[in-house]
Amino acid sequence: MNTIPPDQCPAWKKLQAHAGLASGVRLTERFAADPARASRLIAQAPGLRLDYSRQRIDDAALALLAQLAAERGFEEWRAALFDGKEINTSEGRAVLHTALRAGKAAPQEVKQTLLKTAEISTKLRAEKKFKRLVSLGTGGSDLGPRMLADAFADGALDVRFVANVDPVELQRALAGAEPATTLVVVVSKTFTTQETLANATAARDWGCKHFYAVTANTAAAQKFGAQEILPMWEWVGGRYSVWSAVSFAAQCAIGATAFSDFLSGARDVDEHFLQQPLDRNVPALMALLGIWNVNFLGAQAHAVLPYAHRLRLLPAFLQQLEMESNGKCVDRENRPLGYATGPVVFGAEGTPSQHSFHQLLHQGTQAVPADFIVAGIDPVLDANAQAQAAALAIGTSDAALPRYRQYPGDRPSSTLLLDKLDAAGLGRLIAAYEHKVFTQGVIWNINSFDQWGVELGKQLANRILKGEK
Questions:
Q1: CB count, 10 Å around CB of 248?
Q2: Where are the domains of the chain?
Q3: Could you list the active site residues?
Q4: Smallest Cα–Cα separation from 303: which of 239, 378, 383, 367?
Q5: For 271-315, what is each residue's pLDDT tens digit?
Q6: Which CATH number fits domain 6-92+262-452: 3.40.830.10, 3.40.50.620, 3.40.50.1820, 3.40.50.10490?
Q7: Paired sense of beta strands 413-418 and 158-162, if any
Q8: How far is it, in rounded angstroms, from Cα 136 to Cα 214?
Q9: What is the C-alpha to C-alpha distance for residues 277 and 282, in angstroms, rounded to an integer?
């Protein structure tokens, strides 16, 4: 594997020089000079299309970014990911979340767990023994399953999620429920997560006697009193675990068939990511565009704007996926970085976000690249997304208007269009962002699969609770 810092690669230096020349060319000029730009700068994956014609980029920059990826050993790293090599070097682990959705090629333990969760969830939905299911987790053990259930729950079972140690969230999740007809699922790989165990203890104190667990620590779960234990594995990081038994509660909310579709959608994108060249590879292009914006155009933030209420929790999910993965200041060789890595990710669903922070996107002092996510579910939603992307790119040129009514334009965005907003479509979308994050980590020479930055705060909180100084 290449250990040379990316900013010492020949392509990086060429990109710096090219950015200086290209930055003076506005998007309006690019569209005028290339009438086919809107139809040419498009990449297609199964069920997912990326339109990046409104990015401040040209063919020369794209070629240099592909060269940079080659110099950083992208293809070798990609093969190592899918081959189960220990690419999480700081923890000595493989990174095999793609194995969770590999279908017939999945490991036997994964197939067995999928059969078991499908069987149990189907039974719970049909029998109605439990009127409410409450899932206790935090971070990656909560964000993905919560989003999946929020998007596609069909009402067959009342499923709630609790992540905050603030007792109000648990109180609201249990309000109106009866202990005898409530099932609590405790999701924690170590079964020591402070917030999750505090909520589990509070649920038991409330009177709940029915507990399932999703964990790698079977002994601790049994000691707590879990009647059913579903596995987690060390080779799956929390923020990549939505494909596993971590989503048992979500599977109960949406049904086993929809969850299977969710996995198959992600598998479609896995195959696309493995097989397609960079210039037609949707996740890789998303990554290269991000590298261009952050490292060569100076962007420090990235907005995610899903124009679908079902995807309202996607920005929060991607905040963890991107910032916990690539919010690093040290490379794989333990060297401090001299270049930027993960930008600040934020966002909200459109159209409400248009009446909030879009003001900054249009007229703020910094250009913030944006992803517009469109599903073709409503012409009003689609029109608003298209209008916002066009306004950011083109702006206004009416000099008669006062400055406070002028829009500078030339602000980059991409549009991701889902063929269909269903469980498979969401699986494709999440997988695309996962592979984007991985590709950027390869180019930045950082480990996208550890998260040491969250540990110190946990340790200090424990000391404070124990009365230590």
A1: 27
A2: 6-92+262-452, 107-254
A3: 324, 355, 458
A4: 367
A5: 999 999 999 999 999 999 999 999 999 999 999 999 999 999 999
A6: 3.40.50.10490
A7: unpaired
A8: 10
A9: 10
At 363, list the tokens.
């007229």
DSSP, collapsed to helix, strand or coil, labels residue 467 as coil
Give the whole-angstrom CA distance, residue 63 versus residue 11: 9
DSSP string, 199-242: HHHHHHHHT---EEEEES-HHHHHHHT-SEEEE--TTS-GGG-T
Contact 288, 62 (CB under 8 A): yes
CA-atom Rg of the chain in angstroms: 23
Contacts of 185 (CB under 8 A, 6+ apart): 133, 134, 135, 136, 211, 212, 213, 214, 248, 249
- pLDDT the model gives residue 467: 86
End-to-end Cα spacing for the chain: 44
- Helix (H) and strand (E) counts for the chain? 19, 11
Return the residue matching tokens 């401040």.
Answer: 56
- Average pLDDT, integer, range 429-444: 98
> 418, 374 in Cβ contact below 8 A?
yes
CA distance 323 to 316: 11
Determine phi and psi for 238, rounding to 5 degrees: -55, -45
Establish whether domains 6-92+262-452 and 107-254 are of one fold.
yes
Q: Kind of pairing, strands 158-162 and 132-136?
A: parallel
Token match 């710096």: residue?
16
Q: CATH code for 107-254?
A: 3.40.50.10490
pLDDT tens per residue, range 69-120: 999 999 999 999 999 999 999 999 999 999 999 999 999 999 999 999 999 9
Q: In whole angstroms, what is the distance from residue 417 CA to residue 174 CA? A: 38
DSSP letter at 188 equals -
Contact 46, 428 (CB under 8 A): yes
pTM of the predicted model over 0.90: yes
Of 279, 324, 280, 326, nearest to 441 by C-alpha is 326
Considering only CA atoms, which of 214, 216, 242 is closest in space to residue 226?
214
Q: Report the alpha-carbon distance of residue 161 to residue 104 in Å, rounded.
A: 31
| Identity of the amino acid at 349 | E
Would residue 128 be called left, alpha or beta, if left means φ above 0 and alpha means ψ between -120 and 50 degrees?
Answer: left
